[in-house]
TrEMBL record:
Cell compartments where the protein resides: Periplasm
Keywords: Chaperone, Periplasm, Signal
A GO cellular component annotation in the UniProt record: outer membrane-bounded periplasmic space
Family per similarity comment: Belongs to the periplasmic pilus chaperone family.
SUPFAM superfamilies cross-referenced by the UniProt entry: PapD-like, Periplasmic chaperone C-domain
Main subcellular localisation: periplasm
Protein name, as recorded: Pili assembly chaperone N-terminal domain-containing protein
A Pfam family annotated for this UniProt entry: PapD_N
Species assigned in the record: Providencia stuartii
Record's keyword annotation contains Signal: yes
């Protein structure tokens, strides 16, 4: 097992405070929905940037996967469709509409915010956004984590419990905790993992170890 002091990962559950695309921004790049908020929900702001000259028609929803169209999730967003004027902010409220989610681990969904400027066509696909927010052809997609109450360990302990091992030329990460843990930077044997160099992140749920996205050089 590779010593954590040698690997020196920088592990974050949250990233930079803003993610933006085509004149709109969210005030979060990932969202955590604690079970304790089941009644009141959680909020996130959608802002039309100062460079915007036209209003936007904004659609917001929670989907099951980045490329999924299904909105059959335990969450509902209000308002789900609204007009956003230039240089203004609108607050979204994400509510839990039904239970039945696992109570021994986090669950992950995705908040999708799609904006269409008045009189404009959708822009072509863009690369990944800073801080882990994935950009769609006309909007923003951020992870939404449902966090049950009373999980067996704290988020801080979960990060400390990550285990690293080498199998051949690959570095494997094993997350024994009930949390999804995102690595935003990882240096192993002097090699920065490709996920970081390509402005991407890697997220580990509680599953058996799987490899990091390929490293620049073999792990020594």
């Amino acid at each position: 097992m590779i010593n954590l002091q040698w690997v020196l990962p920088l592990i974050f559950l949250f990233f930079v405070p803003f993610s933006a695309f085509a004149g709109i921004s969210l005030d979060a790049t990932r969202l955590v929905f604690p079970e304790s908020n089941s009644q009141q929900g959680i909020g996130v702001g959608v802002t039309s940037t100062t460079s915007s000259s036209s209003p936007y028609l904004v659609k917001a929803r929670v989907v099951t996967a980045p490329d999924a169209e299904s909105t059959d999730t335990p969450f509902v967003v209000s308002p789900s469709l609204f007009r956003l004027e230039p240089s203004t902010t609108n607050q979204l409220r994400i509510m839990l509409r039904r239970g039945g989610l696992p109570q021994d681990r986090e669950s992950v969904y995705y908040l999708q915010v799609i904006a269409q400027a008045a009189g404009k066509h959708n822009e072509p696909d863009k690369p990944l956004a800073p801080g882990g927010a994935m950009i769609l052809s006309s909007g923003i997609l951020v992870k939404l984590f449902y966090r049950p109450a009373g999980l067996s360990v704290s988020p801080q302990k979960a990060m400390a419990d990550l285990q690293f091992s080498r199998r051949g030329q690959q570095l494997y990460v094993y997350n024994p905790s009930p949390y999804f843990i995102t690595l935003s930077s990882l240096n192993a044997g002097g090699s920065l993992c490709r996920s970081v160099r390509q402005n991407r992140t890697a997220c580990w749920p509680r599953f058996p170890g799987r490899p990091m996205p390929s490293v620049r050089r073999p792990v020594r």
